[in-house]
Design a protein that fits this description.
Layout lengths: L1 E6 L8 E4 L3 E3 L15 E2 L3 E2 L5 E3 L5 H4 L14 E3 L1 H18 L9 H10 E3 L6 E3 L2 E7 L7 E6 L4 E4 L49 E5 L10 H17 L4 E4 L5 H11 L5 E3 L1 H9 L9 H10 L1 E2 L6 H6 L4 E4 L9 H8 L6 E4 L8 H8 L1 E4 L2 E4 L3 E4 L8 H8 L6 E5 L4 H10 L3 E3 L6 E3 L1
Parallel strand pairs: 3-6, 6-7, 7-8, 12-13, 13-22, 14-17, 14-18, 15-16, 15-17, 18-21, 22-23
Antiparallel strand pairs: 1-2, 1-24, 2-3, 4-5, 9-10, 10-11, 11-12, 19-20
C-alpha cells in the first residue's frame, strides 16, 4: 500500500491522504492568510493525481473544506461519508461560497457545490463498502456527530485512518480526589455517567489494522477533568453576569456550539446562540442516532434564545449583560466580529475561548498579545480573556490509550504542531512510528 501525505503532515489543517494513487481520504483547507489547500491542488486542474473516489472522515473545514473543488471539470469521483458529514460539508461549502465566492479564499464554484448531491454515497458505522477498489468501513470516532475512523483494506494491508477522535477511556474517565466542593457527576438520559463530551460519546472502536495514521493535535496536553472544567466555566460566567458584564463565547459551529449549549442548559445559564451554529444544530437534531442524548440537545435548544441579527440586535445584546455563544471559534469571521469589538472596552466583560486557536488567527493573537485584528483594524481588548479546553480531541493519555491497541502496527503521526516530537515519544515507548513530511509518499 502506498500512502501520499498531501496535507496535515507536520501541521494542523488541509488533511488529505492519498491511498494507492486512487483513494483520497479527506480534502481539507488550512485556515491561514491566504488559506492553504492540499499538495498538488490547483484551481485549473483540481488535485493531481485526481482520485477515483473520496472518503470524508467528518465535517470540519480542515478535513472537507476543499472537497467540492474536486468536482470541477469533467471528473466526478464518488464521495463516501456518513449522512451527518454529507450535510455538514454542504453547510460549510455554502458558507465559504457566501463569504468568499469568486476569490482565492474559495477554491470551488456554485456548480461544484451543486454536484455534491450527484456523487454522494452515504454509509453508517460498521457498514463495509467498496471505494476505488478498496474495502472501507466507518467506525464511530467520538469527535462530532458522524465523525469516523476509516478502515481501508486493499487486500494486502489494512490501514486505519483515525481522522479526528475523542476517547471515552482517556483522561475523562479519571477522577480527581473528591472534596466537599466537588461538582456533581454528569449523567446521560439513562443515568450513566458522562465521561467526555455531552454531545457524543467517545470512540471505543479498535478494529484490527497493520498501519495507523493518527491525529496528534493534543499530544502534549492533558485535558482537565470535564466535570470540573464545566464547573469552572459556569462559575466564571455567573460571576461576570452578577457584575453586569457580557460573556462572548466564541465556538466552532460544528460540535462546539452544541456542546456549549448543552453545558449552559445543564448549569441553568441563560444564553443566546448566533451564527452558523444555529443551522448546524438543526441539522444534527435530524440525526438522533449520532447523538449521545437527543432529548438533552432539544432541551438545550429550547433553553437558548436565537439571534436573527436584524436591526442592530447584536449590538443591543452585547450591552445587555448576557451570554452569547457564537461563531467563529477562532474569531476569524461570523457574528463574533460584531460582539467582540462591542464588548472589548469594558474590563467587566469577558471573552471565553472554548477551542484550539490556530497560529495566525485572531483568537491566537488575542491570547498572546491582548489585541486582535477585526475588519482590518487591530483593536486592544480590555475585556477579560479566558480559555477553556472543551476539546473534542483525544489528549496525550487518550492518544496513548488508543494507540496501545496498535503496538504491532506501523504508525504515522499527522495533524499536530509537534508531529516529529510525538513520533519520537511513541518510538521510545516501543512503537514503530514516524512523522512523514508534507508531500511524502511511503510504501507500507
Amino acid at each position: 500500500m502506498d500512502l501520499r501525505f498531501l496535507g496535515a503532515a507536520r501541521e494542523v489543517g488541509r488533511s488529505a491522504l492519498l491511498v494507492n494513487g486512487r483513494l483520497l481520504l479527506d480534502c481539507g483547507t488550512k485556515t491561514a492568510t491566504p488559506p492553504q489547500f492540499p499538495v498538488g491542488f490547483s484551481r485549473a486542474g483540481g488535485l493531481d493525481p485526481h482520485p477515483d473516489a473520496v472518503v470524508a472522515s467528518h465535517g470540519h473545514l480542515d478535513h472537507v473544506g476543499t472537497l467540492p473543488a474536486l468536482l470541477s471539470g469533467d471528473r466526478r469521483p464518488p464521495i463516501h461519508w456518513t449522512p451527518p458529514t454529507r450535510d455538514l460539508t454542504r453547510v460549510l461549502a455554502r458558507d465559504t461560497l457566501d463569504l468568499h465566492g469568486g476569490t482565492y479564499d474559495c477554491p470551488f464554484t456554485e456548480a461544484d457545490l451543486a454536484r455534491l448531491g450527484e456523487v454522494s454515497e452515504t454509509h453508517g458505522y460498521r457498514e463495509s463498502f467498496v471505494a476505488a477498489g478498496h474495502e472501507v468501513t466507518f467506525f464511530d470516532a467520538g469527535h462530532i456527530p458522524g465523525s469516523a475512523h476509516v478502515l481501508v483494506d486493499d487486500g494486502e494491508t489494512r490501514l486505519l485512518y483515525t481522522g479526528d477522535f475523542h476517547v471515552e477511556d482517556g483522561n475523562d474517565s479519571r477522577t480527581e480526589e473528591a472534596g466537599s466542593d466537588a461538582p456533581p457527576s454528569r449523567t446521560d438520559r439513562s443515568g450513566n455517567p458522562i465521561r467526555g463530551q455531552r454531545l457524543v460519546a467517545g470512540s471505543r472502536a479498535r478494529p484490527d489494522a497493520d498501519v495507523v495514521v493518527t491525529e496528534s493535535t493534543y499530544s502534549d496536553v492533558t485535558h482537565s477533568d470535564r466535570d470540573r472544567l464545566e464547573a469552572r466555566f459556569a462559575e466564571s460566567v455567573r460571576t461576570t453576569l452578577w457584575e453586569g458584564g457580557t460573556v462572548v463565547v466564541p465556538a466552532f459551529a460544528i460540535g462546539r456550539t452544541q456542546e456549549l449549549l448543552l453545558v449552559c442548559a445543564a448549569h441553568d445559564i441563560p444564553c443566546y446562540v448566533d451564527g452558523m451554529g444555529v443551522r448546524v444544530t438543526e441539522i444534527l437534531r435530524q440525526y438522533p442516532d449520532y447523538l449521545r442524548d437527543p432529548a438533552a440537545l432539544q432541551r438545550a435548544v429550547s433553553h437558548a434564545r436565537t439571534v436573527t441579527g436584524r436591526d442592530g440586535q447584536r449590538e443591543r445584546i452585547a450591552d445587555q449583560g448576557t451570554v452569547v455563544v457564537t461563531t467563529s471559534g477562532m474569531l476569524s469571521g461570523g457574528p463574533a466580529m460584531t460582539y467582540v469589538p462591542a464588548v472589548r472596552r469594558n474590563p467587566t466583560n469577558k471573552i471565553a475561548l472554548t477551542g484550539y486557536q490556530v497560529e495566525g488567527t485572531p483568537g491566537r493573537e488575542l491570547l498572546e498579545t491582548g489585541s486582535a485584528e477585526f475588519d482590518g483594524q487591530v483593536m486592544p481588548v480590555s475585556a477579560q480573556v479566558e480559555q477553556y479546553d472543551f476539546s473534542a480531541h483525544a489528549d496525550r493519555e487518550g492518544l496513548f490509550a488508543f494507540l496501545d491497541s496498535y503496538r504491532d502496527a506501523r504508525t504515522f503521526v499527522v495533524h499536530g504542531d509537534r508531529c516529529p516530537a510525538f513520533a519520537e515519544e511513541l518510538v521510545a515507548e516501543g512503537f514503530d512510528a514516524a512523522a512523514p513530511d508534507l508531500g511524502a509518499t511511503v510504501s507500507v
